[in-house]
Amino acid sequence: MGGGKSRALCEEAFQAALDYPGIFILIARQEHTAIVGSTRKTMFEQVLPPELLDKRYSRIVKSGGFDFIELPNGSEIHFVGLNDVVRFHSAEIGLLVLDEAHQMIEDDIMTLNTRLRQPGTPRQILVAANPENPGHWLWRWFVGDAEKTEYGYYKAELRLDEFAAPLGDAIFVKALPTDNPYLPEGYVDRELAGLKEFYRQRYLEGEWVFVSGSCAFDLTALNEYGKTVPDPLYRCDFKPRGIGDKAALRKSDTGRLRVYRQPDEHSTYAIGADVATGRGQDYSCAYVVDLHDMGLVAEFHGKLDPDIFAEQLHFIGRWYNGALVAVESAGGWGEPVVIALRDGKGGRPPYPRLYQHRLDSSVAMDTVQRFGFPINTKTRPQVLSQLEKAIRERALPWISQHLLNECLTFCEFEEGTPSPRAQPGCHDDAVMAAAITLELYRQRGHHPERDMRVAVKTTARKRVRELLKRDPFYHPENKRAKKTQLYPPLGRN
Q1: In whole angstroms, what is the distance from residue 48 CA to residue 42 CA?
Q2: What residues does each domain of the chain span?
Q3: Distance between terminal CA atoms of the chain?
Q4: How would residue 314 be classed by pLDDT, with cut points 50, 70 and 90?
Q5: Which end of the chain is more exposed for a tag (fewer CB within 10 A), N or C?
Q6: pLDDT at residue number 434
Q7: Contact (CB, 8 A) for 3 and 176
Q8: DSSP letter (8 states) at residue 489
Q9: Cβ neighbours of residue 269 under 8 Å, at least 6 residues apart?
Q10: Model confidence over 47-79: pLDDT tens digits?
């Protein structure tokens, strides 16, 4: 707050209007009523020279739903609210300026970006925003996975989606109120420094911290994992061949399977999968866990139809030594994947190791085992607790960048709402897939503490057997047995 962001945007927009005669500039806030008393006021009172406000030189329109100034060189600067931006969807924009962008929705900005098509102009987006919760779309665009610089961050390639082409580069500059010499005296020390801790960190220090909601995972642990995010060995997909019972591994830069560790013939593996439709906003996601050390050795993430997802899971599972595969079966879209894995109707044989969930809560019924992992009000807290515990205790050898980003936006909100869950506009596919995968590790994995406990018990049993060989009436911590030792029953030699 008070960093001079709006003034900087207006200066840049006016300079572009001078440098590129005839440019069409769109300056937007979420609501037009908000822009009138803020950004527009800054432009007219602090940036535009008074001579240009003379009607003899510039045309100023503020009626009929339009609000703009046309300069003598033909450049137009429009002030709009995103709630009424539809009228500009057919426009050719040369510069898009967004003020208070943290209040905006990512999809609206992506749509406006496609209108940056005016020839001979910069065709750039200028953004001013306050920090939001970690994982917010602005954080993903400009901060997450970016190179740190003296003044902020830099990305050589800004991608809105992992499979999309880059939009260009992205520069993020911190505008701190302590760097603004034009603020009223005492404003920083009194108004901003007097805020509560987290608000002070966000609005005075410019940090991306939680103010509404709180991260469901240990932030200190996530920050540590963020410093050691590994690059995959390669990315790939499986390409079926023949009648579909075999497949070739095809490496590519856009492969949906990220491999962090090659299959080891001496290891056993399990796969947890979260299924989406392949046509909506969500993604289908799966993780492969090494049951020996809890390493998430591979990550699958993509938008694809359930039958194709089942095909990929089949070959991933076979590649990783016939891994146990658990498919999230709630919501309806997991069932087609489970059926495609086990029916053997096509060229592929039935997958031999599908997870079966035990439904044995009713003692009056025989135990039922269903294929797939149901996520409901009982199992959801259980599987999420496995991921939360593994992150808090730093038990995972590493976390992928994609899983890290989703963990940062997976929050607990106020009472009366489903909690925890992804922030609005964010995803939880990777979180749920990883949680199911770690539940499989809990059930089938190698736990050193358990092995130690079993070893201690085994040693104790051996010692008891040795004592019994020397004294048949020995029984530790049993007073009755000790009396029997003193007074053996009749008939015993």
Answers
A1: 9
A2: 5-208, 234-444, 449-486
A3: 92
A4: very high
A5: C
A6: 96
A7: yes
A8: P
A9: 263, 288, 289, 290, 291, 297, 317, 320, 321, 323, 324
A10: 999 999 998 899 999 887 789 999 999 999 999
Burial class (CB in 10 A: 0-12, 13-18, 19+), 409: buried
Residue 362 has pLDDT above 60, yes or no: no
CA 318 – CA 301 distance, rounded (Å) = 18
Residue 5 backbone phi and psi in degrees, to 5: -65, -50
Q: Mutual orientation of helices 334-342 and 306-319 as an angle, nearest 10°?
A: 50
Pairwise CA distance, residues 397 & 293, whole Å: 8
Give the Cα separation of 10 and 33 in Å (integer).
Answer: 18
Res. 415 pLDDT band, cuts 50 70 90:
low
CATH superfamily of 5-208: P-loop containing nucleotide triphosphate hydrolases (3.40.50.300)
Query: Token digits for 325?
Result: 């595969």
Q: How far is CA 383 from CA 348, 414, 436, in A?
A: 31, 21, 6
Q: Is 65 left (phi over 0), alpha (psi -120 to 50) or beta?
A: left
Task: Give the orientation angle of helix 429-444 with respect to helix 379-392, to 10 degrees.
Answer: 90
What whole-number distance in Å separates Cα of residue 286 and Cα of residue 309?
10
Could you tell me which residues come within 8 angstroms of residue 289 by beta carbon, excluding any fewer than 6 positions away? 269, 270, 271, 272, 295, 296, 297, 437, 438, 440, 441, 445
In sequence order, the 6+-apart residues with CB closer than 8 A to the CB of 216 are 384, 388, 407, 410, 411, 412, 420
| pTM as predicted | 0.65
